[in-house]
Amino acid sequence: MSFVVFDDVGVRAPDGRAILDRFSLDVPEGEAVAIVGPSGGGKTTALKLVNALRLPSSGSVRVAGRRTTEWDPIALRRSAGYVIQEIGLFPHLTVAENVALAPVIAGWPGDVEARVDELLELVGLAPADYRTRYPHELSGGQRQRVGVARALAADPPLVLLDEPFAALDPVTRFALQGEFRALLERLRLTAIFVTHDLREALRVCDRVAVVVDGRVVQTLTPVQVRTSSHPVVRALKEASGL
Amino acid sequence: MSAEVGWATLEHIVLVLASVGLATLVGVPLGIALTRRPAWQRPVLGFANVVQTIPSLALFGLLIPLPFFGIGMRTALVALTLYALLPILRGTVTGIATVDPALREAAVGMGMTDTQLLRHVELPLAATVILAGIRVATVIGVGVATIAAPIGAGGLGVLVFSGLASLDNARILAGAVPAALLALAADAALGLLERRVRWPR
């Protein structure tokens, strides 16, 4: 069953320019789908449609069967973890406070502190060492781990990631990709992962949607990516050294 | 005379605390409201700016003939509050406006309501700038309160003005020195508080 469905979506910029144009994509429940393509192609906009940070100008986006325009935006956003580049951590809050924020704002019924420890363990940060640190005291890789922990803290069925590992050094990025893939499988999460790096998309996701000029031109499994001769896919493969 | 100085200092402090307190109670919520309605920023900040620009004696002069005001503490309190309003209002608006938009989007994206955004993200990040506004307002308030003596506000200005009238230098200094010290002390205390709310970077 599809958990997120983009149906013929159009999004226009205030100046009338089309950012997305007849954008269609199915994200099945429990699958991780990458949105890959050159910058400026509308990848981030597509992601923001899912948690109603943006609304479609035409067509519809459905999450769990309901249009995003019919959802209460607050409830929708609380059921979709959101990971963005490292800037997303709140600089005035400790690691523990950052992670606790999602359960706190959603009125988590259980023990938030225990949940924070559980999440920090899950992303490989020892709670005793990291709880009281501030984001500026962490390395880029540690910050992104906290970002992932925070996104998962309120136990959402869906995670949205926008270039989460782009600012990391290659070694850290490689390690985090592998760990994140394992996490997705373990928690059976549905994920939409925006990246410009095809290699990263293949390492983390089950399927790859190639987006060019606001439209999905191909949706491929990793095997299909290898054999695809679509010019854009070929260019992406070359750029990623595949 | 020392009892008189003590009493005048106390009056002065009460006057400044009351007016800055009042201005904070009005200015911070109004500033927050302005960040939600950017179209109102120009007229409201413009009005506060005009009030700020009127010389203090002239403002007292303008208020006194109005019904309800006249000579006395009430007029002084209103004038001092009006003076304190602009720095606090501007600090609140600027503090919240300069919060990184990416942080605001991260907060909204994780499902915060507007109240939660304000409480967990915008106000803590803007706190130093808001406090800086309150600090400026307080220091200005100590000064303007001195000038408010002729309209019956009491405070250390009474000593200064009566000393001037009777050419009594000791009396002038008995008012002026504590007023100066009060301004310095308020500045230092609020500066300390500002450093305490500053988030680590």
Plain-language structure description:
The complex is a heterodimer of chains A (242) and B (201). With 242 residues, chain A is α/β, with parallel strands linked by helices. Chain A contains ten helices and ten strands. Chain A has a domain at 1-79 and 177-242: 3-Layer(aba) Sandwich (Rossmann fold), CATH 3.40.50. Chain A has helices at residues 43-50, 73-78, 95-105, 112-122, 127-130, 140-152, 170-187, 198-204, 222-227, 231-239; strands spanning 2-12, 18-28, 32-36, 58-63, 66-67, 80-83, 158-162, 190-195, 207-212, 215-220. Chain A has a six-stranded mixed beta sheet with strand order 6-7-8-3-9-10, with helices on both faces. In chain A, strands 2-1-4-5 form a four-stranded antiparallel beta sheet, with helices on one face. The model of chain A has no long low-confidence stretch (mean pLDDT 93). Chain B is mostly helical and 201 residues long. The model of chain B has no long low-confidence stretch (mean pLDDT 92). The chains are: A alpha/beta (242), B mainly alpha (201). The interface between A and B is medium-sized, with 27 and 20 residues.
What key attributes describe this structure?
heterodimer; A: 242 residues; Rossmann fold; 6-stranded mixed beta sheet; 4-stranded antiparallel beta sheet; 10 strands; 38% helix; 26% strand; B: 201 residues; mainly alpha; 8 helices; 0% strand
